Amino acid sequence: MTQENTQITLASIHRNMLLVALIDFPGTILFGLGLYGILVGFDQDFLPMLANPLIIIIMLIIGAIIMLWGIIRMMLLARQKQGILQQ
Description:
Layout: H1 3-40, H2 53-85
Helix pairs in contact: 1-2
């Protein structure tokens, strides 16, 4: 692989990592709000929707799925980047 191709590939991996981080952010927010709803309490004035335990469970599940996808995808991209840098 030439130096120019390596730089293009690394830039593409970096761009994909940023995209994964942006997609992962709402999952982290959902998961955090779900934990807030469970740990602080259901009848808070902060967010009225946290008064419904079903919504909290759905927020936790969806947030965890998005975060899991983000972790797996980020690890694959990091492994790919490390392989290119070691060549």
